[in-house]
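Hello,

Our lab assistant flagged a job as stuck in the queue for most of the afternoon. It eventually completed. Since we weren't sure the result was trustworthy after the delay, we are filing this so someone can double-check. Below is the sequence as submitted and the structure that was eventually returned. Let us know if re-running is recommended.
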Amino acid sequence: MGVEMEALFTNALGLQAPWVVENVKLDTTDRRIDFEIGCQGAGLACPACGAGAQPIHDRLHRSWRHLDFFQFETWLHCEVPRIACSDCGKTTQMLVPWARPGSGFTVAFETFALALCRDLPVSQAAALLRCSDKQLWRRIEFYVEQARAQERFTDVRTVGIDETSMRRGQNYITVVHDLDAKRLLFATEGREHKTVLDFVDDLKAHGGDSAQVKHVCMDMSAAYAKGVGLALPQAQISYDRFHVVAMAMDAMDQVRRTEMAQDAPAVRVALESAVDNDEHKTLKQLMWGMRRNPDKLERQANRRNALVAALLAQERAGVAVEDGVARGVCEGQGAQQRTAGECRTAGLVELGVQMPAGAVQEAGQKPQGTLCCGWCAACWGIAATPTWRP
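-- returned structure --
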């Protein structure tokens, strides 16, 4: 090709002296473009010590995959000089401006590939880029390590710990988030108590202090509770509302099923005044009516009122769930002085739910001395624990 064409591609690739495009090869059959890049100059600076005007020892041939030009697969080739420095006595290969050392991709190609991997499965991104997924995974690992080396966890005070399924089967990873900054702090395989210990080690490696972590929000995993107790002694534990509500709802359903199996006539008698359609359909809809919030009740309102009037166990369980879970607040003197009979959520004790001694709170809330939170030991009729730990 002509000099003008080579100068055009030199500018298109963003090359500056001493790097220039010396030759361009176009293969329309294989839909590929190959650029031969040269390094002009007899005396170059030493990459190791910076001494100028050093002689070239030899040249090594290197190739890099670049972004496509005009939908043609593009490769850059260069005879990279090695500089023999008389000052430091080292022979060092020059760094090329379009790729990082040791990579077979240009920086532009890696940037585009990582952007695709953020939104697509790695295998699908590799198919679009016409490369192997293993090559992309190596780049992801490299840049993740580079980014994590710059992370600082000095301001971490409130964390959330949870597990998520990595693939089908019992394959889980544990993830830890900073709930204040809303960012991922740590992820590792498994869901044992050791994962919390590994997180604390990583926290310290990035400038954090485990003693400064004051609050941990997590599910009811005994393994996580053990890990927090060992590695985060200053932290208070909050169980997330989803698991608390799910436990109470399951207990309420158990009461409803037991009562329907053992005393179905009493339920039918209580519903006689409220039934305005088929009895079987009414009993079937009752399950969903009890699961709804009171402010969203429609046709089920009369049926639930009839159950309340009849003092049936399943409705008392439903009311206890609404008061104890949705509101989470008890009225009274103090947790140490209350009994299950005096507590507004005492109906939940009938459900047979065994909550841990201590308390369950919303994330960000702290225990208020002896005030009852609605999920405290007194509310459940079990021994209170002043340490506020599960």
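-- support follow-up --
The delay was a queue issue, not a problem with the job. The result is valid. The chain is about 35% helix and 20% strand. The longest helix spans residues 241-262.
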